[in-house]
Amino acid sequence: MTTTFGLFWDVDGTMAETERDGHRQAFNAAFAEQGLPWHWSVASYGQLLCISGGEERLRHWLTTAPPGAPEEPTSQAAMAAHLQERKQIHYRRIVSTGGLRPRPGVVRLIQAAAAAGWQQWIVTTSRRSGVEALLDTQPWRPMAPAFQGWICGEDVVCKKPDHQAYAMALSRSGLGSHQVIALEDSPHGLEAARRAGLPCLITPSRFTLYQDFAGAAAVLDHLGDGPQQPATVLMGPPLVCHLHVDLAYLQGLLQ
Questions:
Q1: Count of CB atoms within 10 A of residue 71's CB?
Q2: What is the pTM of this model?
Q3: Is the dihedral of CA 138, 139, 140, 142 positive or negative?
């Protein structure tokens, strides 16, 4: 397939607000299942998001010596791996209820890009099983064929803010960095995209709304979805013709 442009989509926080209502709850369910007296509140989980990757987040948490955590690093690593596996099971259960809805404009933009022949790739450092769980439920399932490929946490050695995932997506897609827009919600994602030479459009999630996005090509509250959900530009070029991010706006960010 010959294409001119590409969209590289982050998942968690960008396509859906999965962190607060999905991953956090799944971690807490795994803790309760194992009889551990831990509960990650919205505020505490927001702080832990500075660490990319669920298992890496758990390893960091265990080094803070919460009650019931082993002291030996090897035991901590084993516990983190086990809890991550249990967490993924709970996450799939949560996702299967259909409660993780797309953020405004996500479905519209995926469909528009697919119709125009743009390549679209998922570029996330979350596990593949989590992405599969999300895209296997409504209303996500019909959008799955729009993606030419996925780069997930298991595919890379270094997670965001390292640029390895984006570099891999560029290599596999055959596109140049001047042809691709990255869609992200976090400073780590922005840094990863910029290290790969990609312009990045940011739609902050609930956890990242007030963080620093210096260097982004544009920052909007969301992608916009019709007159009932118009997008607001927080930084970057104005939305001249529409109340939402369209392909013309994205092409403008590439110039």
A1: 9
A2: 0.90
A3: positive
- Contact (Cβ atoms closer than 8 angstroms) between residue 204 and residue 213: yes
Q: Contact, 4 vs 62, CB < 8 A?
A: no
Per DSSP, the residues of 194-253 read HHTT--EEE---TTTTTS--TT-SEEESS---STTS---EEESS---S-SS--HHHHHHH
| Per-residue model confidence as pLDDT tens digits over 138-162 | 889 999 999 999 999 999 999 999 9
Task: Write down the pLDDT at residue 122.
Answer: 98
Please give the domain boundaries of the chain with CATH numbers for all domains. 6-17+101-254 (3.40.50.1000), 19-96 (1.10.150.240)
3-state SS, residue 39: coil
DSSP, collapsed to helix, strand or coil, labels residue 121 as: strand
